[in-house]
Design a protein that fits this description.
heterodimer, A: mainly beta, 6-stranded mixed sheet, 12 strands, B: 113 residues, mainly beta, 7-stranded mixed sheet, 4-stranded antiparallel sheet, globular
Chain lengths: 114, 113
């Protein structure tokens, strides 16, 4: 069975500082990996995804993530945090070639201080 | 706005009552998913449709839950004899055949008193 673990339910950074949100996955088949962001009172929005090919993927709003098979990780980073990045971030995994059913982590709430 | 509409946005009901939620997908999207999200948790998969066929149901979907997608367009999720533990955000997501991206609606927040 697939699963996702997000280390740290809350992360706080100063504006301009590096953002690092951690995600580790478990999958018996090659995974598809996703990061979604949820702003208050809004639906989930896709930040970026990894399916095949280049292991460093770039997403919207300056975020990027690197798929590391040896570490079963897909950590999300942004070089310089902005106040507008404050939100809940979810890592998710699905089976390649499957129903595309997503299995989500428990989320990490990012706070950005001025 | 992702183009996926959910109605109502909020629903307050008394324990034991039946409730029904609706999801209107992006018109060309043939795949539709229902998820449930409780406070402090990530969304949990409930069920999945391809066109009008319900292809997968989670163990979370008890006998009190039923979902339909007549004619492969909008979908409804009904909860019978609601319990306080059903209180959650119910999310709908859709995608097209060849697009590896789910579009989520804003959800229906259910509160069972």
């Amino acid at each position: 069975a697939q699963s996702v673990t997000q280390l740290g339910s809350h992360v706080s950074v100063s504006e301009g500082a590096l953002v690092l949100l951690r995600c580790n996955y478990s999958s018996s088949v090659p995974p598809y990996l996703f990061w979604y962001v949820q702003y208050p009172n809004q639906g989930l929005q896709l930040l970026l995804k990894y399916t095949t090919g280049a292991t460093l993927v770039k997403g919207i709003n300056g975020f990027e993530a690197e798929f590391k098979k040896s570490e079963t990780s897909f950590h999300l980073t942004k070089p310089s945090a902005h106040m507008s990045d404050a939100a809940e971030y979810f890592c998710a995994v699905s089976e390649s070639g499957g129903t595309d059913k997503l299995i989500f982590g428990t989320g990490t709430r990012l706070q950005v201080f001025p | 706005d992702t183009g996926v509409s959910q109605d109502p946005r909020h629903k307050i009901t008394k324990r034991g009552q039946n409730v029904t939620f609706r999801c209107d997908p992006i018109s060309e999207h043939n795949r539709l998913y229902w998820y449930r999200q409780t406070l402090g948790q990530g969304p949990e998969f409930l069920t999945y449709f391809q066109n009008e066929a319900q292809l997968e149901k989670s163990r979370l979907l008890s006998d009190r839950f039923s979902a339909e997608r007549p004619k492969g367009s909008f979908s409804t999720l009904e909860i019978q004899r609601t319990e306080q533990g059903d209180s959650a955000m119910y999310l709908c997501a859709t995608r097209g055949q060849a697009i590896e991206k789910l579009f989520f609606g804003s959800g229906t927040q259910l509160s069972v008193l």
